[in-house]
Design a protein that fits this description.
- With 217 residues, this protein is an alpha/beta fold.
- The chain has one domain: Vaccinia Virus protein VP39 (Rossmann fold).
- Helices cover 30% and strands 27% of the residues.
- An eight-stranded mixed beta sheet has the order 1-9-10-6-5-2-3-4, sandwiched between helices. Strands 7-8 form a two-stranded antiparallel ribbon.
- Strand 5, helix 7 and strand 6 form a beta-alpha-beta unit.
- The longest helix is centred in the C-terminal third of the chain and has 14 residues.
- The protein is globular.
Length: 217
Amino acid sequence: MYTPAQPDRWWPDPLEQKHVEGCRVFADRQLLIEDIGSRARGGRIAEIGTEYGNFTAFLLQTLKPTTFHGYDLFDLHTKETYGHSRPRDVMGSRTHRAYFEDRFSEHISAGTMKVFEGDSSTEMMKQPDGFYDLIYVDGDHTIEGASRDAGVARLKVKPGGVLVFNDYALWDGTHKGKIWPYGVVHCVNHLCVQHGWRMAGFALQRTMFCDVALVRD
C-alpha cells in the first residue's frame, strides 16, 4: 500500500472498465450483503470497526457465520460525542467492549464470536492467511489506517472471498463544517489496479458514503 507522503499518489488510481465489469448497484448496503455476501453465508466473517454493533447484528442475522471476529479499538466510552450520538447515552456506564460483549453474549458463549481489541491490522495479522470468507472494513478512514486494514484484509480473505469497504468517499464534510480527507477510495482502487480485484457490488447511501464489494476471480 502507499501513504500520502508520496505526492504523486494524492489522487486515487484511475479504474478501468475491467475493474467494474459486471458490477451490480444496490439501493443500500444491506441489500449488497444479502446478495454479494451470500457466498460467505455459514462461513467465517470479520468486521473491522464494530461501533455499537448495529451492523454486526445484521451480519450475524443475514449470513449466520460459524465464526465471527469483531475488531475495534473499543474506546467509545472515552469520547464525549461520537458522530451524532453520545456514547454514554447508548452504553450507560459500561465500557465500549463491555457493552458490545453484553449485546452479543449468546454468540460469544456459543463460541461463534470472538472480540479483538486494539489496532485492527495488527490483530488481524495474527490470523492465518485465507482464513475469512468475507471481511467488512469500516475502521480507520485515513489513507494510512485504511491502507493498513486493506493490506492485511487482502491476505486474510480466502481465494474467492469478498472484501466489503464502507464509506467509499474522498471527503467527510459532515462534522460541523470541517473537512476530513478519507483514504478508502485510494485503497479500494489500489486493490483493483495493482492487485487484481474488481468491484462486484456498489451500494448507494443517501449521503453518498457508499459501500463497495470486491472479489478476485
